[in-house]
Design brief:
The complex is a heterodimer of chains A (about 375) and B (about 325). Chain A is an alpha/beta fold and about 375 residues long. Chain A has helices at about 5, 10-45, 60-75, 90-100, 115-120, 150-155, 165-170, 190-205, 205-210, 230-240, 250-255, 275-285, 330-345, 345-355, 365-375; strands at about 50-55, 80-85, 105, 120-135, 145, 185, 225, 240-245, 255-260, 260, 270, 310-320, 375-380, 380. Chain B contains 13 helices and 2 strands, in the order αααββαααααααααα. Classes of the chains: A alpha/beta (about 375), B mainly alpha (about 325). The interface of A and B includes residues 10, 88, 91, 188 and 214 of A.
Chain lengths: ~375, ~325
């Protein structure tokens, strides 16, 4: 029995270890206090902080908003204006701006009629233009085959299942299509891109309209889904015979093959900045005012011989009277928001957009936007002269 | 003689005159932490139930049996997702459990002492890999591998079975099952190894002394003795496969439909939630349906875990099988 004698000495180091823990604890507390104190000082000494404008929504608009944020911060100098934009998806952007959690929302799909009726002072400002391309993976075939709305609709309905379908061959003379199966790919997450694409297909095919309909998430009868534009692009690139719909910027970045689509005038049009802008210009005359109901606005299947048929506006949503936020909104911030909007729809910003494959707004839409932005007020006083 | 308590206990026993307010404070603090976790669980269930109410009112129990999931028409049903979840988990178990048991038996019974510890570490390390990493690996390594070699081979040899017929989509039910099988191996093998190690030595000795071979001794004395522990391990693996979200969402193909073919895309309860969580305004039917799926998922996962724990406890408390 040597237990007690053996174990007693081990108690000594344990006591001193407790002392060590106390010392470490005290040091940690001191460090935390000093660091946090220093940080608040730094913030205090760094001069006035920039005005923060918070937005979120459309992931399609995200690369553009990031570029604009950097550019606008540099333009406004110190302290300047900091634009924070999160790509949470169009649906989430609309919900958050309605809940007054954001200074502005971004969306590819306009407010629906109910949302507009419930929020009549939420203004719709077209900010940029995008095109949805129909990309495919057919090794050995040309980079741009011809497709029509009804054919694409039938592919997405599962009516056309093979690439050597007679309808596809008929509009692509001289191309020998393989007899491989068509692997349909779509967006699995809620997406403005899906909204635009299904909006177009619903117009092109009565069967698609009744069976699937248009929305940010729809019940696809065939195919498989991947999240985000890049996910669909990867899915199409990963499987021979695949077809998918992605934003123009992504097919360009990924060097994918994408189709020319037959437009309302009967020409097969390749999606690019010019054909997208042409679609917007041809629809510009019929747009509602900024505080109007935009739910029926669509520039898909636009008239005009050069218009690409699957084009869309992407919108910013801003309240007409800004002194309605429960907290955080000041006159200076409201003024900064309006100044940013005015800058965003103007030449410099729109040219910057073009370098990122967003088509610049046609002049008539810019005029409409400026008129809308002039109606924004703080306590009833207009913010833009 | 070795003192049978841990150090702190021993110290408390040797020096019983500690300050009592410290004890009280500690008791109150840990008690509050324990209570908070119960509150959190209750709050979670209540909030889910409240948000699911619109959907429950609209569809009732028919929600569980309906195959419709159409946000455009506001029609929602959970059956395709329940089917996808159960089928992928089942594939995972069929593929993963034999491998896990092999690992567990090798580590516990057969492997030389020098590689036992490294092997154990490696297996447990697999459990620590975040699921999104499995998803990425699945998407870029497993998907091309299965699509190019395994799936066509399966279709060629077993193509008479309806489950191996049809178009081979690159991301499908089968891929999700394989990824899940790999993901449950660490859990299942670690817990079954513990169950095997808990089998008393005399069980093995008795079997060997009766003339059993190594395999017979493992089968008769060890595996059957540890079977409820192993069953518990399998249920824990099932629980993990059932709730796994990220990796599955990346490789299952996300189609809201029931397909007989394993090569067709599908959707699980967790993947449809991950895909549509951004959709649906507060109070809308769509959000209600999504939340109700979450409620179904939570309930089933809870039941599986309770069942698994019960089995493990039963195995710890009471010996079974083996040689008496």
């Amino acid at each position: 029995m040597k237990s007690t004698g053996e174990h007693e000495p081990t108690l000594q180091p344990q006591r001193s270890r407790r002392g060590l823990w106390i010392v470490i604890g005290v040091i940690a507390v001191v460090v935390i206090i000093v660091v946090s104190g220093a940080m608040t000082n730094w913030f205090g000494l760094g001069g006035p902080s920039p005005i923060q404008l918070n937005g979120a929504g459309s992931s399609f608009a995200f690369p553009l908003m990031s570029a604009w944020s950097t550019q606008y911060k540099a333009l406004t100098g110190v302290p300047g204006v900091q634009i924070n934009y999160q790509a949470t998806g169009s649906g989430a952007g609309i919900n958050a701006v309605i809940a007054k959690n954001l200074d502005f929302g971004g969306t590819d799909a306009p407010l629906n009629a109910t949302q507009h009726t419930q929020n009549p002072t939420l203004l719709t400002i077209p900010e940029s233009l995008g095109a949805v391309t129909v990309a495919y993976n057919l090794p050995g075939l040309p980079a741009h085959i011809n497709l029509t709305g009804p054919i694409v609709a039938n592919i997405y309905l599962g009516v056309i299942t093979k690439w050597d379908d007679a309808g596809i061959s008929a509009i692509n003379p001289g191309i020998a299509f393989p007899s491989t199966s068509i692997f349909v790919q779509y967006r699995s997450d809620s997406s403005g891109t899906t909204f635009v694409f299904t909006d177009y297909l619903s117009n092109a095919s009565a069967q698609f309209s009744s069976q699937v309909g248009k929305g940010k998430l729809v019940a696809w009868p065939v195919g498989s889904g991947a999240p985000q534009n890049q996910g669909v692009a990867n899915a199409v690139k990963g499987q021979a015979g695949a077809i998918g719909y992605v934003e123009l910027a992504y097919v360009v970045q990924n060097s994918m093959s994408y189709a020319k689509i037959k437009n309302a005038a009967g020409s097969y049009i390749l999606p690019d900045l010019n054909s997208t802008a042409a679609a917007a210009a041809s629809a510009a005359g019929s747009l509602p005012a900024g505080d109007g109901d935009w739910s029926q606005v669509s520039i898909t299947n636009a008239t005009g011989s050069n218009s690409y048929p699957i084009a869309t506006f992407t919108y910013l949503l801003v309240y007409q009277e800004l002194n309605i936020y429960p907290s955080g909104m000041t006159e200076a911030k409201a003024k900064a928001l309006v100044d940013f909007l005015r800058w965003a729809v103007d030449n410099v910003a729109q040219t910057a957009a073009a370098s990122l494959t967003y088509a610049p707004l046609p002049a008539s839409v810019v005029t409409l936007d400026v008129t809308t932005i002039r109606t924004i007020t703080f306590n009833g006083v207009a913010l833009l002269p | 003689m070795v003192f049978p308590f841990r150090r702190g206990t021993r110290r408390a026993l040797l020096h019983p005159t500690g300050s009592s307010w410290g004890d009280l404070l500690f008791q109150a603090g840990s008690g509050a932490a324990g209570f908070a976790i119960l509150m959190l669980l209750a709050l979670l269930a209540v909030v889910l139930a409240i948000n699911a109410l619109p959907s429950f009112r609209a569809f009732g129990f028919g929600f569980l049996g309906s195959t419709a999931w159409n946000p455009v028409r506001d029609e929602f049903g959970a059956l395709p997702f329940i089917y996808g979840t159960l089928l992928t988990s089942a594939i995972a178990l069929v593929l993963g459990v034999p491998v896990s048991l092999g690992i567990a038996i090798f580590v516990a019974e057969l492997c030389p002492g020098s590689i036992r510890v490294p092997l154990t570490y490696v297996v447990e390390l697999l459990a620590a890999v975040p699921s999104v990493v499995y998803g990425l690996w699945g998407l870029f390594v497993l998907v091309p591998l299965l699509t190019t070699y395994v799936s066509p081979a399966l279709q060629g040899t077993l193509g008479f079975l309806p489950i191996f017929q049809g178009q081979i989509y690159d991301r499908n039910l089968f891929t999700a099952g394989v990824i899940l099988a790999i993901m449950i191996i660490p859990t299942v093998s670690a817990v079954s190894r513990d169950a095997l190690l808990a089998v008393p030595q005399h069980q093995r000795e008795a079997a060997l002394s009766l003339g059993a071979t190594r395999w017979e001794s493992i089968r008769i004395a060890v595996l059957s003795y540890a079977r409820s522990g192993i069953f518990g391990a399998v249920m824990l693996g099932f629980g993990r496969a059932f709730g796994e979200t990220m990796a599955v969402t990346m490789v299952i193909g996300n189609r809201n439909a029931i397909s007989v073919s394993w090569f067709a895309p599908a959707q699980t309860l967790s993947s449809i939630i991950a895909n549509s969580a951004r959709e649906g305004a507060a109070g809308s039917l769509e959000l209600g349906a999504i939340v109700e799926l979450g409620l179904v998922l939570m309930l089933v996962a809870f039941l599986i875990n309770v069942f698994a724990r019960l089995m493990v406890w039963r195995f710890l408390g009471k010996r079974e099988g083996g040689l008496e």
